[in-house]
TrEMBL record:
The keyword Oxidoreductase applies. It is an enzyme of class 1 (oxidoreductase). It comes from the Bacteria. Its EC number is 1.1.1.47. This is Glucose 1-dehydrogenase. Gene3D superfamilies: NAD(P)-binding Rossmann-like Domain. Belongs to the short-chain dehydrogenases/reductases (SDR) family. Keywords: Oxidoreductase. Transmembrane segments: none annotated. One of its GO terms (molecular function) is glucose 1-dehydrogenase [NAD(P)+] activity. InterPro entries: NAD(P)-bd_dom_sf (IPR036291), Sc_DH/Rdtase_CS (IPR020904), SDR_fam (IPR002347). Pfam families: adh_short_C2 (PF13561).
């Protein structure tokens, strides 16, 4: 599988979970990958080691995407290492859940700073380097379709991601750069384990509503992202692509 040979990709928040799976999937298809992390250096280095052990190309680059200087430094590191940029996967994200009465200003700002501002800052830094055929993939969430209780702020951030995708698809389309959202539903990751979502009534309810009858796995999402990144999806832009087993 070499459909991304010669391409260079940045994956934000790629030290674990969906981001790590995406980084590995892009590398397996021939891309050189910049594995971004905010705090888990060991996790990012483990992803790089896994890629290079399979004769792929990858480097780990630390950076808080919600800070403009660090977002730019991340893109600069990609250009310095590989000389070009073709694919950006905006995967960095944080989430906290709770009822309306528990919403706080710091919680709101933290989620919007990483999930929305971070996406914009990295894309802003990356866009000048992307060429015709470039692909930007924003990781959304199935919560925007099912709007579960106690997710008001997180769902709002992902609704913003969907809207930004549409705007940037129109804005960057004249340069033949594609912009899409890939939206997972509940996926088994380190984060969903630590948040207590799995082996719970919440998990059981999601699985019961999912036509394919199971949780998502990171590889399920990564393979969809790899398709959208490739020239096989050359006529796809401005779309929200669900990777959720049919959950609506």
């Amino acid at each position: 599988m070499s459909k991304l040979n010669g391409k260079v990709a940045i994956v934000t928040g790629a030290s674990k979970g969906i981001g790590a799976a995406v980084a590995k999937a892009l590398a397996a298809r021939g891309a050189a990958v910049v594995v971004n992390y905010a705090s888990s250096k060991a996790g990012a280095e483990a992803v790089v080691k896994s890629i290079t052990a399979s004769n792929g190309k990858a480097i780990a680059v630390q950076g808080d995407v919600s800070k403009a200087a660090e977002a730019k430094a991340l893109v600069d590191a990609a250009i310095a290492a590989y000389g070009r940029l073709d694919i950006l996967v905006n995967n960095s994200g944080v989430y906290e859940f709770g009822p309306l009465e528990s919403v706080t200003e710091p919680q709101f700002r933290k989620m919007f700073d990483v999930n929305v501002l971070g996406l914009l800052l990295v894309t802003q830094a990356a866009a000048p380097h992307l060429r015709e055929g470039g692909s930007i993939i924003n990781i959304g969430s199935g919560v925007t379709a099912i709007t579960p209780p106690q997710t008001a702020v997180y769902t709002a951030t992902k609704g913003a991601v969907d809207a930004i995708t549409g705007v940037l698809a129109n804005e960057l389309g004249p340069r033949k750069i594609r912009v899409n959202t890939v939206s997972p539903s509940l996926t088994e990751t380190e984060g969903t384990h630590s948040a207590g979502m799995l082996a719970s009534e919440f998990e059981a309810g999601i699985v019961a509503q999912t036509p394919l009858g199971r949780l998502g796995q990171p590889q399920d999402v990564a393979d969809v992202v790899a398709f959208v990144a490739s020239d096989d999806a050359r006529w796809v832009t401005g779309d929200k692509i669900s990777a959720g087993g049919g959950l609506r």
